[in-house]
Write a structure and sequence with these properties.
Low-confidence stretches: 1-16
Helix content: 10-25%
Shape: globular
Radius of gyration: 26 Å
Number of strands: 36
Oligomer: single chain
Mean pLDDT: 96
Largest sheet: 10 strands, antiparallel
Strand content: 25-35%
Length: about 700
Amino acid sequence: MKKLFSAIFLLAAALMNAQTISSPDKNLTLTFALSAKGEPTYNLTYKDKPVIKTSKLGLDLKKEADMLEGFKVTNTAKATFDETWSPVWGEQKNIRNHYNELLVTIAQPAVKGRYINIRFRVFNDGLGFRYEFPEQTDLNYFVIKEEKTQFALAGDHKAFWLPGDYDTQEYSTVTSKLSEVRGKMKEAITPNASQHPFSDTGLQTPLMMKSDDGLYINIHEAGLINYSCMSLNLDDKNMILESWLTPDAIGDKGYMQTTTQSPWRTIVVSDRATDILASKLILNLNEPTQYKDVSWIKPVKYVGVWWEMITGKSTWAYNDLTNVKLGITDYSKTKPNGKHAANNAHVREYIDFAAKHGFDAVLVEGWNEGWEDWFGKSKEFVFDFVTPYPDFDIKALNSYAHSKGVKLIMHHETSGAAANYERHMDKAYQLMSDLGYNAVKSGYVGDIIPRGEFHYSQSMINHYNYAITKAAEYKIMVNAHEAVRPTGLSRTYPNLIGNEAARGTEYEAFGGNNPDHTTILPFTRLMGGPMDYTPGIFQTKVSAYNPDNNSFVHTTLIKQLALYVTMYSPLQMAADLPETYNKYLDAFQFIKDVAVDWDESYILEAEPGDYITIARKAKGKDEWYVGAVSDENARTAKITFEYLPKGKTYIATIYADGADAHYEKNPQSYTIKTIKVNSKTKLNQKLAPGGGVAISIKEEVKK
C-alpha cells in the first residue's frame, strides 16, 4: 500500500507540472510535463490520436552537468500570435503565421540554479519547439556532446527515408516500415563522392511517415543557424526517434555561447497528405528577412552549359593535364582537349537561345581554371574563382549577354575546400558585381577541407550562412549545391534562391532516379525550401549524347514539364540542350510560358510515393498552371478548376502523355490540345507509367 501511495504521489507531482496548449483550430494538443526524475517531456495528439507519445527532452553536455533531469518548472507563459506576411518570392503571395505558444522555464537547483527555456509553438498544421539558453552566471559557454530530443512514435509507421549521413543527402528514398530500416540500410547506402553514414538505423530529415490509422507525419527542423544539422536515430524496438547531431572533426557536436538557442524541431501533421505539402510551418518559424532592400532579388528561369558535361558529351576541363598549380600552370601553352564546353562560340549559342526564347540567364560551368585535377585530390587551393580559361573571354561574353537582355550565372565549385572559398570570396563576388552577374551556383563536391569536417557540422553550417550573407553585401543570389538541406532560412535570407541537397536530375545520367522520386521529394526535401532540381530533359536516352552512357531518364517527356509546377523553385532551369529543344518546340512552349513565382498554390491531390497534382496562379497575372506526376504506375489524375474566378472562361492548353507513352518504352509520346475551362470544369486525365500532365490556363481572348 505504501508503494502504491508513493507511485500515486509521484504521478501527481509530475502532473502538477503539466502544461497543455492547443492549436488555434483545437485539433492539435501539446502537453509538457516533468517526470518524477525531473526530466522534461512532451507529447502531441491530433484529433485525439497520438502523434508523439511521451518523449524526453534535453542535452548531454561534454564537460558541464547534463541538461537531462533534476529540473523544476519555475515559470510558464502562454501567448497567441497571428500575422500575415508576404515573402519576397514563393508559392503564395501572402502567408498566415498563426500559432499558440507555451514558454516553459525549467531550472536545475543542483547545478547552481542553472535554467533553460523550452518554447513550443502549436500551429494548425503542426508543432515547433526549441531550447533557449539565456545568459546567466553559471552558463556562458558549453559544448554539446549530444542533443537528446526524442520523438516517440505511436506505431511502426510507413516511412520515406534516406540513410543518416554526415556528408550527403544524395541517396534514393527507401519506402518501408520503420521496423524494416535496419534490414534495408546496407542496400540503401549507395556510393557517393563524399559520405559518412553513422548508424544501422540512422535517418535523415525531413522524415515523412504515414501511420496505419491515416496520419501523415513529417519531422524536420527550422532555422538552422550556428548549430549542427540534426539527423535521427531510430530505436526500432520501441519506435523512438532521437536527435543525432553532426559532429565536428574531433567529435563535438556544438560550441555554444549564451544567449543562444537551438534550431526549431518541427512536426507537421495532418490526416490529409495535401495539407503536408501546403504547410508553411517551417517558413513561419524562421525570422523575417534582415534585408531592408530586396528589390535585387528576382526569380530566375535559365538555361546552361551543364547537362552536356553531366552526360559526358563535353568536359568542364580545358585540357587533359593531371597536375595543375593555379598561378603557375600556363594554360595558353597547353593543348585543348577539344571537348571543353565553356568556350566563347558555344556560350554565345546558349546566350542566343536564351534571348530568343525569353530566358533570364545562362549558367556556365567549367569557365575557370583548375578543373583538370579538381576532384579527389584533397587539394585546398583548387580554384580561385576569378581566372578564366583561355577560350572563355569573361568580359566579352558578359557584354554580349547583356546586349541580348540576358545575364550570366556564375559557377563556384569549391571541391569541398570551404576555407579556400572564404579566402577568395570577396574577390570573387566583387568580380561578379563589376560584371553584373547577380546569381552564383556554388558547389561542395567531395570531402570537406578543413579535413575531418563534415558537410553538416556546425562550422560548415556557419560557412554556408556566411556565404549567403556575404553574397548579399554584393547583391548576389545564391544557389548552393551539396550544402545542407534547407530549413526555411530563405525567409530570413531571400537571396538563398535555390539549393540542391538531394538527388537531382543529374542522377538520371548516373544510372537514373526511381520513377517515384519526384512524388516523394515535395514531402521530404522540399519541406524546408525549394530545390534546384534542373528538370526539362526531353532526350531521355543519355546515349544520344554519349554512346558510352546507357542511363536513361525515368520519366516521360511530359512529366518533365509537370515538374516545373510540382517541384517548386523560384530558380528553374531548362536543363537539356538547345538542339534538342529545337526538335520539340511545341512542348518547349510550356517551359517558356510557366511562371517561377506565384500568387497562390492549390494542392489538388497527393499521396507520397504515388502521385501529386498542383495548380498555381502566376504572380501578378491572370494565368494558372497545373502539374501532375505519377510513379511507375499509370493513373488518372482528377483535376478541378474551382480556383478560377467564377463566371470567366479560360483556354487550357493540355500537354499530355500519348496513349502509348511509357517512361521506359516510349517516353517521347505526347499530345497537345486546347479546351475551354471555367471554375466548374472537372478533368480526368490519364497519366502514363512514370508520366504526368502539364496545363497552362490563360484567359480567353474575345474576338
